[in-house]
Amino acid sequence: NPAWASVTYGVYLCLDCSAVHRSMGVHISFVRSTVLDSWTWGQLRVMKVGGNGNAAAFWRQSGGSRSLSVVSGGDIKTKYTSRAAQLYKAHLAKLTQQDKESYPDGRVYLGAADAASSTRPASDGS
């Protein structure tokens, strides 16, 4: 049950992995509890466009599959500071900006039905 997330990479983490990510420092991976912490709209948007599957697929396509598995001998810090990780962060930022431009009222919509059904004035909240 992933109850933690790395906002930096838009991925969900188990408790053990969240501890590893926290130990790397917030400059590498900014970790939040999905239950205990408060989130900004921007952070929620990153999680919306990110996801574990998207991150893994991007890293594989970018030649970063060698650094995906710590079991294969890769150091965790090396994995999250690799060229593939840097490219994914840039890709995630681009997707986040595109989503923000698609929904400029400051809210984070999870689907088209949510956006269409909302008629209340916008509240950014960040």
Protein described:
The protein has 126 residues and is mainly alpha-helical. It has helices spanning 15-24, 41-49, 52-61, 76-80, 83-102, 112-117; strands at residues 4-6, 11-13, 31-33. Strands 2-1-3 form a 3-stranded antiparallel beta sheet. Helix 2 (41-49) crosses helix 5 (83-102) and helix 3 crosses helix 5 (83-102). Mean pLDDT is 81; it is low at 113-126.
Give descriptors for this structure.
126 residues; mainly alpha; 48% helix; globular; disordered C terminus
Per the principal axes of the C-alpha atoms, what is the gross shape?
Answer: globular
Tell me about the largest β-sheet: 3 strands, antiparallel
SS-based class: mainly alpha
Gyration radius (Cα, Å) is 16 Å
Instruction: Report the oligomer.
Output: single chain
Order of SSEs, N→C? EEHEHHHHH
Q: How many helical stretches?
A: 6
Give the end-to-end Cα distance, rounded to a whole number of Å: 27 Å
Strand order of the largest sheet: 2-1-3
Strand count: 3
Mean pLDDT across every amino acid position: 81
Strand content: 5-15%
**Poorly predicted tracts of residues:** 113-126
Helical fraction equals: 40-55%
